[in-house]
Amino acid sequence: MTFLSILFALLIEQLKPLRADNPIYASIKSFAGSIEGWFNAGHAHHGRLGWAVMVGALTIPAALIYWLCVHISPIAAFAWNVLIVYLTLGFRHYSHYFTSIQLALNSGDEMTARALLAEWTKQDTAGMDVSEISRIASERALITTHRHVFGVFFWFLMPAGPALAVMYRVSEYLSRAWNEPDHMKYEAFGRFAARAFYWIDWIPARMTAAAFAVVGNFEDAIYAWRNFASRWDDEAAGIILAAGGGAMGVRFGTPKETAAGIILPVDAATVDTLPEETDGLPGDTPSPRTLQSTVGLVWRALLLWMFLLLLLSVAVWMG
């Protein structure tokens, strides 16, 4: 049932993609803002309480409905699984940005590519050359695909899968919503949300990196993972991008950037210890062809996940 649930949800999303600005996501965003307003009094323990309330309010009902559906009929449980996977997946949430950037670069329209990238990543893209646009678009695509697809897959495969898939996506959203906006940066309230998602995503991030290595250049992926993942401030993103870049034979990241392209503060005492951008890192400079390679890597990794899931489902059925 798990394999068929994911397969049906993927097929439905290909036919009818759920946009990132849909009413369900808008309601969750509004709820998260309300929770932040109710609980944020400037202390870390308020963030822990707010996170528990937010995640529990969405995860517990999902688990109870799944339990009820299981006791009603297998068809009801299957339908609930498909619905939850469809709502938590985001395979095509931002694909229109990526595709449009790819088309713009292929046609030589750098201005349009910069505008689309700025709208997608919410960062200043003025003055970026083709290589930089290609790099950031590819990085964002790999990270977004992991958090909206492969991470959801991992938790959905666990017992009470629908509820855990909801937990993963809500935790991922709170780690951003309570830390990234200007008015929330450096506040104690969002620290627990970031730390909680770090541990929730610890295994999925490494499984995604391993999948990229298996379906790409394995030796370069593992080499980059082991030696260059630390150049990103976000550990999970660094692992995914280092392995993904190595698998494609492309150099991702810069010594002073996170995966989201945020420049990290560097003081005089540490600037001399930063590695050069290309110091030993395998691969070529990103180019418009990198975007096509990114699409191929993601699809091969998705097929690998589905194949392994099919084998697991057959083994369980025959057992």
UniProtKB/TrEMBL annotation:
Q: Say which domain of life the source belongs to.
A: Bacteria
Q: What is this protein called?
A: Cobalamin biosynthesis protein CobD
Residues passing through the membrane, by range: 49-68, 75-94, 148-168, 297-318
Give the function comment from the record.
Converts cobyric acid to cobinamide by the addition of aminopropanol on the F carboxylic group.
According to its UniProt record, which protein family does this protein belong to? Belongs to the CobD/CbiB family.
Pathway annotation: Cofactor biosynthesis; adenosylcobalamin biosynthesis
Q: Does the keyword Cell membrane apply?
A: yes
What InterPro entries does this protein's entry cite? Cobalamin_biosynth_CobD/CbiB
Q: Which organism is it from?
A: Herbaspirillum chlorophenolicum
Q: Its gene?
A: cobD
